[in-house]
Amino acid sequence: MANRDNIFAAPIEKLGDFTFDENVAEVFPDMIQRSVPGYSNIISAIGMLAERYASENSHVYDLGCSLGAATLSMRRHIKAQNCRIVAVDNSSAMVERCKLHVSAYRSDTDVDVLEADIREVAIKNASVVVLNFTLQFLSPDDRQTLLERIYGGLKPGGILILSEKYSFADDTANELLIDLHHDFKRANGYSELEISQKRSALENVMRPDSIERHKERLGSIGFSSVAVWFQCFNFGSMFAIK
Description:
Helix 2 (39-53) crosses helix 3 (69-77). The protein has helices at 22-35, 39-53, 69-77, 92-103, 140-153, 171-187, 192-202, 211-221; strands at 59-63, 84-89, 110-115, 126-132, 154-167, 209-210, 225-232, 235-241. Helix 4 (92-103) links the parallel strand 2 and strand 3 (110-115).
């Protein structure tokens, strides 16, 4: 049973920026399920996409792996021989727990869990790369550079799976989708105080792009096929194929 997320349940006098620290790692499964609409569907489909695209003697990367949900989903599905998953996160609390989750299940697909900055990890011989709600936490200047490095390290026909929170240029649509997301959180037991405090904590560290901006960026880098395959409110996931 996942620990209940009560991080923002009481008033916080000095509300700092959101960080993936020990407190967040402790409640992350509950937090993500109650905060991100469609998260379970995305995790399941990442496994199915990895089964389809992971090739023999290649690497699969989960960049910003947190507790390893996408890594474990891919590991369950991948059938390709001699395929190695590289799971990377810069939070020591997340990496520690991810290693425990990975070691709890035996599989023919090996997994390396690394504590590192994803902007500095070499991407090579990759058939699948996953950025599952990760890119949005990088500064806008770093996003293009990272995606270019991923493209350079992907094998021809390889796939990037990119899940993100989206912004929308149409103010009416943007506010409606934000309100629907907040309704989703209320329905999952979050109070007005929790919703407000977490939104403030994320304000400076998570800056979402529009779907159009993602497509434009990925297309300019050279990906041949880019599409949104899942969306619920202002959250969704795209694929980009080299």
